[in-house]
Amino acid sequence: MALTFRLPSLGALLRLMLLAFITLAATWAMAAEGTKTAGSRVSAPIVEKAKGGECVADPAFMRRNHGDMLKHQRDDTMRGGIRTGKNSLKACIECHASKTTNSVNASGSNFCQSCHNFTAVKIDCFECHASKPAPTAFHPLVSPHGNSAESAASMKLRQVVVQQQVKP
């Protein structure tokens, strides 16, 4: 028994090519719906306007260097104990949080998320930090009343440490 292979008819080939063209054209049209960057076919990120006034630096500088500024501020705070508000993540969040979601990371149009999605860069800041400004959001070991008063969690931790030191 011999196997034979039959070529598709010219009509079938034309229908297949037409279907491929329509699918490709629809894909291009859907991709073109977003805002375009100047001279590019790539849609630009949609960023909501910030709540505050001027940023700590001009937008072009911030787009390129904000990650380094935040890392430098983190190092100063965590390793040097230097806490200033000028380049802090908290200040960025308070200014750039969305008016609708009150977050910088909750949806694709929020300030941080939109640009990081566009550039395919993973945001790891919010694995530890809150992405929403909250005036009463305190770390469990930090008192809302300043450095002189201890929070309940801080006192509990101190008791546990003392109890462990007393045991023989």
Set out the fold topology:
Layout: H1 10-31, H2 59-80, H3 89-96, H4 111-119, H5 152-166
Succession of helices and strands: HHHHH
Specify Rg, calculated over alpha carbons: 27 Å
Tally of helical runs: 5
Strand-pairing-aware structural class: mainly alpha
Strand content range? under 5%
Query: How many domains, in number, for the residues?
Result: 2
Question: What is the average of the pLDDT values?
Answer: 75
Give a count of the beta strands, DSSP E runs of length 2 or more: 0
Largest sheet: none
Helical proportion?
Answer: 40-55%
Uncertain ranges: none
- Please tell me what the overall shape is: elongated
| Terminal residue distance | 90 Å
How is this structure best described in words?
This protein has 168 residues and is mostly helical. It folds into two domains: 46-135, no CATH class; 138-168. The protein contains five helices and no strands. 10% of the residues are buried.
